[in-house]
Structures are given as C-alpha cells and as structure tokens.
Amino acid sequence: MTSDIAVKICGLTRPEHVRAAAAAGATYGGFVFFEKSPRHLTPAQARALALEAPPGLAKVALVVNASDADLDEITAQVPLDMLQLHGRETPQRVAELRARYGLPVMKAVGVATEDDLPALEEYGRVADQLLVDAKPAEGAALPGGNGLSFDWRLISGRRWPVPWMLAGGLTPGNVAAAIRLTGARQVDVSSGVESAPGQKDKALIHAFVAAAKGAVQGG
What we know:
The protein has 219 residues and is an alpha/beta fold. Strands 7-6-5-4-3-2-1-8 form an eight-stranded parallel β-sheet. The protein has a two-stranded antiparallel sheet with strand order 9-10. It has seven helices and ten strands. Strand 9 (194-196) and strand 10 (199-200) form a beta hairpin. Helix 1 (15-24) runs parallel beside helix 7 and helix 2 (43-52) packs parallel to helix 3 (68-77).
C-alpha cells in the first residue's frame, strides 16, 4: 500500500471544505482566480479561506494568463505557498514569475496526443512542478476543471525534470487506476469531488483522498 501520494483539492470556495481537505489528508488546497470559473474567488475571499487552512495544507493560487498587477494584488493579500499557471504562459513568463514573487511555480500543460508531450520537458526546465492535465476542447471556456480525462497511457512510465501532478477527470472511482497506470505520485481534483459545479462535497473529498492514498502502484 502507498500512503505517500500527495493530493490537491482545487477550487475550494468555503471554509468547511478547506478544513475537510486538510482533515482528509490532502497536501494542497487550490484557490481559483479566474472569473469564468464557478470556483472563482476574489483576493479578499481567498485570504479568508487561506487563513482557515490548518498548518500542513499548502495554499495554491490558480491563475490564467494573469497580469503582474493581478498577481501583485493576489500575493499581497493571500498567504500563498505556490502559484499554479493554467493559461498560455510561456517558459520565459514562468521564469519571470518565479523570480518576481519568490514562490514555487507549477505550470499546467494540457495533453491530448503525443504531440503535446514535448512541452512538458520544456516547462520542466523552468517550473518547480508540472500539472499534467487533459487538454480542453477547442473553444472551451475553462482551461481546466472540466471533468475531462486524457489517455493516461501517453504518460505511463514517463518522467520529467521536476515533480509532476496528474489532473483531468479524476474521481474517487478512477483515481487509484490512474495512479497505477501512470505512476503519478501526486494527483489533482476539482470537479470530481463536487455535487454541482463549484460545490465541493465533503464526503467525496474524503473518498477521493482515501482512494488515492490506498492505490497500489504497479498492480
């Protein structure tokens, strides 16, 4: 059995769900700063949630093509442990933001086919972590949190220069299989632990973390 799988519960919007994520054993809690998302928070709302986070829950800000001004406001108000870039940020932009804010940066890379894999190597040279996510459909309103998965066989056994996290369509029912197939040591979930868009479910959060941490690698 493996218990060293790290879990990120993204799109937290309520204090009780921040506490539930921590109580379940999640390593990361994600706050979304993207107005098109049903999980969008203002910096003031995120600050209140971050202050509810128990010690040990790393607080991650998910942003999409954010400007320096937006990030200045977010980082000034919210006590954060990591930035997650989920837009079209270039490797140069990733490096700039790491230097500017002094925070670890996780870069999300959408995967649909083998042609998308070289970008992971490229971003792995400048980011602290990678988020390997399902590539959104053309014209999709959201870059993530769509409940879509990709063919996990594309990344089975692959490694990159930095730690990486698997995302995209994960649920309490499939996360163990995804871990076994890909070798992921970290997993991210948002819509997969919701009862409705943007509405986290404490029972699903606990079930997801338990399933992830109970996954047997190589089975």
